[in-house]
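Quick one, T. Sequence first:
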Amino acid sequence: GHCLGVDTGAEDLSLCTANEDCRIRARDCCECGASMSHDNLIAIRTDAGADYEDLVCDPDMGCLECAPEYPADVEAVCDEDGHCTAWVIPPP
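Structure tokens:
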């Protein structure tokens, strides 16, 4: 019954070799209705959604289905250390 922080950059769920391996995701268990502010977005491997949910969601919790709309100025990239990271695109 204790909350723990999850460092996605230290977990296998963020390992990558190319930008295409990564996707943006809200930190919350359920993305429907989650804040899409820059500080609430992370990047994980495209196939690691279920693994992330296993880490952060209550096993008895269900989420509504939706297609989250992420800010256009945030993208998921594979960083030099081989982990996905959320990158805020600087304005022109």
